[in-house]
Structures are given as C-alpha cells and as structure tokens.
Write a structure and sequence with these properties.
Chain A has 147 residues and is mainly beta. Chain A is built from two helices and seven strands; from the N terminus they run E-E-E-E-E-E-E-H-H. In chain A, strands 2, 3, 4, 5, 6 and 7 form a six-stranded antiparallel β-sheet that branches. In chain A, strand 2 (8-10) and strand 3 (14-26) form a beta hairpin. Chain A is elongated and about 60 Å long. With 162 residues, chain B is of the alpha+beta class. Chain B has one domain. Chain B starts with a helix and ends with a strand. Classes of the chains: A mainly beta (147), B alpha+beta (162). At the A-B interface, strand 1, strand 3, strand 4, strand 6 and strand 7 of A face helix 1, helix 2, strand 1, strand 2 and strand 3 of B.
Chain lengths: 147, 162
C-alpha cells in the first residue's frame, strides 16, 4: 500500500518505517471469508550488516524470480507492533500494544534494485555492479524524508 | 484489491509452512530483548515451528491483511509479472536452507521499479490485552523509488508490504 514519503526514512546503513493507526482488514485465518476492519501501528528499523550481493537476471523471462538487477546487503530488522481488532467476527475486542519482533532468528535484507522497464539501468552498465544503487541514490527524495 | 489481499494470505501461509530457522522459546520464557541474543537451538525451534503451524489456524497469526499496491485502476503500481502462483504476484526471497526461495529472488511486488527495497521476516511474542501470549511472525517490506504506473506514467512513491 502506498504510504506518505515521510513514513519511511532511508539512510545509507539504516532504513526505518513508522506507521500509525493504519486501517487494514483482519481475515482471522488464512484465506478466511470473514474480514473486519482493524487498526495496526508499527515501527521497524533495518540495519545492514553484510557485504553487498550483486544480482543480475538469471534469464530474460519476465516471470523469472531472478529477473532483476540489484545490490542487496543482509540486514537485521527490529520493530514493535500494536494492533486492534476483535477476537472473531462480532466478537470481543482484541488488541496488543508495543510487541517487539526481530528478524535476527530469520532473515532480512536492504538495498537497491531495478526491474521491469528499469532493468536497463543495470544491464547497460555491466562494468559497474553498483550502477543500480548509484542511480537510485540520485533520485530526488530518496534520502530526503524524515519521520 | 481482493486479488492482492489473497496474495498476502497465501504468502503468510507459505511462510509459516517454510522451514524457518530461529530460536524462539516458549512465549512465557521470552522477553523482547532476549530474542535476538539467543543462539539457534534446532530442537527448540522445531517445537516453535510446530506450535506456530498449529496456531496459524487461530486468528492471531492471520491478523491484519491490509489493502496493498496492485494493478488498481487510476494509475497505481503494476504487480510483478511472476509470483508464487497464478495471481499471486509475490516471491519469498531468503536463504534456501531456511525454506525460502533464495537470496537472488525478487523482493519487490512492484514491477517497472527502480529504487530502495527492504524486506524482513520478523518473529516475536505478543502479550494481548486478554493476558494471553501468542507467537507472531511478520513478512514486512518497504519500497521507495520510481515506478511506471498502470497508465504508463513514471512516478515516485513509497510503499509498504505487510
């Protein structure tokens, strides 16, 4: 979903997102037919902690999951989550506040990528594996916003 | 909108079914700062996975699937052409040995995109206002940059995948 630009702050080694009172749909179980309005708030900060990995397309097939140019680095993300919903459709209120979560036991990454019609940014600069990152960082506003 | 919400539901189910390495103990023993400091304990984590898979039928694991960027009319971003299944325009990048698709897989759900991309699979424990504790697992992503929208116009925007 689209967010205001100032909901996300991108810096060279970190990135963070702050979302407050976002209206969403709670479906209770995966694929469940019931849905009720719910509200969530969360903040997450990614901190990169790995060397760059340079990706290039594994094929020309647009449906190939490797059809992108990218510079990614592993990152650890930490955040807190608050949500309000109900226990079931028509049920009692259910909520939690400030629950901590981390990607440390699992995985995270951050970086820059180009796909689809922008894939030429990487393809046309084979001598520069950082071309996608450099081009993305040239975008006005990429690093400009504060929470 | 409905198509993409379904995407998320299946995505979440896929994540929960994956063999995700980690180190969460029973919720009653875990406090927030301890989560990241613990070492991987395969036996303990296998138990956590089993518990989590069982619990994903319960409401708490499935909470909050928001409206997402999709091929919406009026110039929204365009979903990537591929995906986990027809109509599910999302991949699960991550370490293969943890059950994900690979570190070289597309994290973006938006095609014709140039910009910043971040993804994280976050785990934690929730203490609800009813006093009970629940495991939670999130696939959270952020994108910022240029995208060519469904009307062919180039725009700059910030997006979240929840």
């Amino acid at each position: 979903m689209q967010l205001p630009n100032n909901a996300v702050r991108v810096r060279h080694r970190t990135a963070s997102i702050v979302v407050e009172d976002l209206d969403v749909l709670d479906t209770f179980v995966f694929g469940g037919p019931d849905e009720v309005p719910a509200t969530i708030s969360y903040d997450i900060t990614w901190t990169r902690n790995g060397p760059p990995r340079f990706l290039s397309p594994g094929s020309d097939d647009p449906t190939d999951p490797t059809n992108l140019y990218a510079v990614f680095r592993d990152a650890v993300a930490e955040g807190s989550f608050t949500a309000e919903s109900v226990t079931e459709p028509g049920g009692d209120p259910f909520s939690f506040e400030g629950a901590f979560a981390t990607s440390a036991p699992v995985w995270g990454q951050m970086g820059y990528e180009a796909n689809g019609s922008f894939i030429g940014v990487g393809r046309d600069s084979p001598e520069d594996p950082l071309a996608v990152e450099k081009e993305a960082l040239r975008l006005p506003g990429m690093l400009a916003f504060e929470h | 909108m409905n198509i993409f919400r379904t995407c998320l539901v299946v995505l979440a189910a896929s994540v929960l079914s994956a063999t995700i390495a980690g180190c969460l103990s029973s919720p009653s023993e875990t406090t927030a700062p301890e989560l990241e400091a613990r070492e991987v304990d395969e036996v303990r984590f296998a138990t956590w996975i089993a518990q989590h898979q069982k619990q994903h039928q319960a409401r708490h694991d499935a909470m909050a699937f928001p409206r997402m960027p999709s091929a919406s009319p009026g110039g929204g971003p365009v979903p990537i052409p591929g995906g986990l299944a027809p109509g599910l325009h999302v991949f699960l990048p991550g370490p293969i040995d943890l059950g994900f698709g690979g570190l070289d897989h597309e994290p973006s759900t938006i095609t014709n995109f140039l910009g910043f991309s971040a993804i994280a699979y976050l785990a934690g424990v929730v203490t609800a206002d009813d006093g009970n504790e629940y495991d939670m697992f999130h696939d959270m992503r952020v994108y910022r940059g240029l995208y060519r929208n469904s009307e062919g116009r180039t725009r700059f925007g910030t997006f979240a995948f929840i």
